Amino acid sequence: MSSLSATAADLPPFRNPALPLRKRVDDLLERLTIEERIAMLHQCAPAVPRLGVGSFRTGSEALHGVSWMGVATVFPQAVGLGATWDEELVHRVAEAVSTELRAFHHHRPPVLGSAPHSLQAWAPVLNLLRDPRWGRNEEGYSEDPVHTGRLGEAYCRGLSGDHPAYLRAAPVLKHFLAYNNEDDRCTTSSGLRPRVLHEYDLAAFRPAVASGAATGAMAAYNLVNGRPCHVSPLIEAELRRWAEPTGHELFVVSDAEAPSNLVDPEEYFDDHAESHAAALKAGIDSFTDHGEDSAPPVGRLREALERGLIDEADVNRAVGRQLELRFRLGEFDPQLDPYAAIGPEVIDCAEHRELARHAATESVVLLKNDGLLPLDAARTPRIAVIGPLADTLCEDWYSGTMPYQVSVTAGLAEALGVHGGEVVCEEGADRIELRSTATGELLGKTAFDAADWGRGVLTLRAADTGRYLSLKGDDSLVADQEVLKSWEVNETFRFEPAGDGAVLLRSVLTGRYAAVDPADGRVTVTALTPDAAERWQRELLRDGAARARAAAETADAVVVVLGNHPMVNGRETEDRAGIDLPETQEALLRTVAAVCPETALVVMSSYPYAVDWADEHLPAVVWTSHGGQETGHALAAVLLGEAEPAGRLPQTWYRGEDPLPDPLDYDIIKAGWTYQYHRAAPLYPFGHGLSYTDFAYRDLRMSQPSIGQDGSVDVTVTLANTGRRTGSEVVQLYVRALDARYEAPRRRLADFLKVRLEPGESRELRFSLPADRLAHWSTATGAFTVDPGGYEITAGRSAEHPVLTARLTVTGPAPEPRVVVGRRTLTVDFDDHADTTIVDATRTSGDAVTPADPARPATLLFRDVDLSGAVRVEAETALENAGSGEARLELRACDRLLAEIGVPVTGDRYTWTTVAAELAAPPAGVHDLRLTLHGGFRLAAFSFTTSGGTA
After folding, report:
1. Residues 394-402: what's their mean pLDDT?
2. Which of 197, 205, 709, 938 could form a disulfide bond with 812, CB atoms 3.0-4.6 angstroms apart?
């Protein structure tokens, strides 16, 4: 947009940069017609030529580089950035990403639509990595809310820049809230009891919002406690409440197609006008729906306005938030925008390449080392690099297009070449031919290298071109894809036995089989049944495992690079089935290790694996995420000792025999998720990572032995590098409540600091520990509280490796018993539970509890309840239909029956009634109260009354 050559006095107020931001927004908002404002509620907001306002599009993907716009610098995956434990580095990466995004905005034509590339960056992802089987594990920073919150805030600040008035880019936090499963993600509900909600899931989002570092948030696909996130009251009650002191409102966007999901498949509302109205009122400001076609969403919102489901104030509120963001991005003040001069030369510039290399290096984690690493180039002049990821790098769905790729093989070859060394590479894949039994012709007229990614899922890469066999829109098969990176992955197949050594070729995507047209011999993937499929004779031309074994036999050392492809068997829309390595990869590793004891395993993956055998039998194990274009340089530097392994695990690596909780059990306390609550010993704990040097921890001291409930203590510890190499250590400060009256975490990260020390250097580190780092959410009071008593403060190398421990005492009055007489108690505020599900009390607000299975009773436990004076109990219930069996509520104190109440049918899950009963034997004093729900009714709250009828 060209600047206007007019004096400030002649400008409309919204064009006058001297005016306060709020006045400018209000002025422009008033000039827009209601139709223009409603149109702006779609992701693709149209231009308003009469006012000189350009078109605007929400959202560019910028998780670890600019995505989907072409070649750009690709940094390690977010989980890899999480492994750095380095806020300053994460900040620098975000600076580079937003600088390149600015260049795309100003100097590259849009890929979609007419609006310039959006400066609203849909990053970072602050969903916690509760379950390592999550298909999008690579997008989060860690399983811990303190770690995630701090790195997320650092990334936001790097994106937005440091100008007081203008943003370089506008960070949007994804995905609000409790989104950690892909299978059926649009219809599954994450059950969050209040403690988990406040101590865990919300805690990761709060720092970036409360500090003003984030400018917006994206609602998640899933439901929370039975209510879709896109109509969650938490958007206003938590997110926007946190943002109020910053002086800026959050601009909240929907996820793609999620507004439509409210009707189908979620069936939460009867029609789209009603659902869109509810989303707007709940705080959704922009509707990412129907792609570029804004007509359906805009039409639904217009209908909602006409039906009185929303009013102009609702529209104005949302559009005002969009306009505020656009002003802050400099759209209306190009002459004052400090980032307007960023040129295209910053994309993939030398500085960003070096930063990508540094970030990839800092993210490498040394999991085990019995002395093999670092490799000595003089003693190991011939290294074999083996495995499916030995000589290839992968892009994930949110990666940019890598400008170049330095594989592990290439990185080691370059580094060893300086010393006259040699690298040999074997991927370990079988080379096969597939010959039609009907025609005798070879599939694709070429041989294929078959890579098995687990669960029988294969990719077939043409031996002559190196390109992947791909299923086309006309159902034909063509080997023409250089990379796997599409929403629907067309390049994965399975072999199914057909007898006599023949196989059937089946598409993973469609489930159909390859067939041959008898008339012209054309191969199409159209057969619906095995009987209609073509039988292929599979001929082994090259045994991948045998070649890998031969390479290992002649090598001085072997580096086996295993892991996942980010687009296969675990990605957006698909969770992993388990955490084991693919069987063929495990077999390859054992084959190689059997002939070369000097074997190091490098796991290159988006998530943890159970590498139990490797940990027991190999001398060295290393992990890196898919680290971007510089992965090979980074790994070579660490493996050869030119750089220190500075990364630490951002999540727990569980053992293979450890039965993990159900993926949909979001109650980390009851289920035992993460290092905070998991009881079994992990393979590698949260925060774990070894070094090539040695560190000593000394003199853990506290500035005072006790503090009040609103006090603070300084914790100091001396760290010394006692080894012979420069190295980095991440000092981790954990806290633990001693003799807690609630189910407290085994330990909880309170602070951390990454320190680099020269040999012989020592440094005193100081941590400020406010009492609120010891707080837990009290279900009795509905607020965070710090209980008086003893706490253990630990400085350690990981969650399971404490080094120094001190005791801190918190003074203050003892907690009072829970008050339930004369007070309405929400059933969701239980202390413990069994066989329950948390559901929505209404479509707009409130939670309730219901049995997970109506055929089995559900139990709620409320501890230390003062029942003095109680003679009657009332309960708020809803029961849609009678179902099978009687619905009743049973209340007991210390196993003594207090009351049993029948629950009537109300006809709808949101139609509530109050049922009551006199207590059979009025109790006195403090007891544990147990409520048992029989039948499929919902229970929202209960209250006890005294003889005087006080409720």
Report:
1. 96
2. 709
How far apart CA 670 and CA 860 sit, in angstroms, is 13
Residues 617-640 as b/e (b if ≥16 CB within 10 A, e otherwise) read: ebbbbbbbbbbbbbbbbbbbbbbb
Please state whether beta strands 382-386 and 422-426 pair in parallel, antiparallel, or not at all (unpaired). Answer: parallel
Spatial distance between the Cα atoms of 572 and 396, rounded to a whole number of angstroms: 10
Q: How confident is the model at residue 921 (pLDDT cuts 50, 70, 90)?
A: confident
Can you tell me the distance from the alpha carbon of 464 to that of 503, in angstroms, rounded to the nearest whole number? 23
- Catalytic residue (choose from 86, 131, 144, 255): 255
Amino acid in the structure at residue 703: S
Q: Kindly provide the residue ranges of all beta strands, DSSP E only, lying in 543-646, ordered along the sequence.
A: 557-563, 599-604, 620-624
Q: What is the dihedral of CA 831, 836, 839, 841, to 10 degrees?
A: -70
| Residue 337 to residues 168, 329, 363, 889, Cα–Cα distance (Å) | 9, 8, 34, 64
| pLDDT for the residue 2 | 38
Cβ(516)–Cβ(534) below 8 Å: yes
Residue 399 structure tokens: 């990666």
> Is residue 789 within 8 Å of residue 780, measured between CB atoms?
no
Q: Rounded to whole angstroms, how far apart are CA atoms 458 and 467?
A: 14
Closest among 207, 217, 202 to 170, alpha carbons compared: 217
CA–CA distances in Å: residue 528 to residues 490, 504, 510: 17, 12, 10
739 and 764 Cβ atoms separated by less than 8 Å: no
Averaged pLDDT for residues 916-925: 90
- Taking alpha carbons only, the member of 260, 288, 261 closest to residue 174 is 288
Q: Is 772 part of the annotated catalytic residue set?
A: no
The dihedral of CA 527, 529, 531, 536: what is its sign? Answer: positive
Peptide bond into 194 cis (omega under 30): no
pLDDT band per the 50, 70, 90 thresholds, residue 951? low
Going by C-alpha positions, the residue among 48, 22, 19, 52 that lies closest to residue 35 is 48
Residue 184 identity (one-letter amino acid): D
pTM of the model: 0.97
Using the structure block, give the residue that is written with the tokens 């370089």: 168
Residue 681 gets the label, from left (phi > 0), alpha (psi -120 to 50) or beta, of beta
DSSP 197: I
Look up tokens 């990981």; give the residue. Answer: 798
> How many C-beta atoms lie closer than 10 Å to residue 491's C-beta?
25
Tokens of 198: 């406040």
Number of neighbouring beta carbons within 10 Å of residue 737:
21
pLDDT tops 70 at residue 615: yes
Write down the residue that tokens 């938490």 correspond to. Answer: 234
487 near 467, Cβ under 8 Å? no
The CA-based diameter of the chain, rounded to the nearest angstrom, is 93
DSSP 226: T
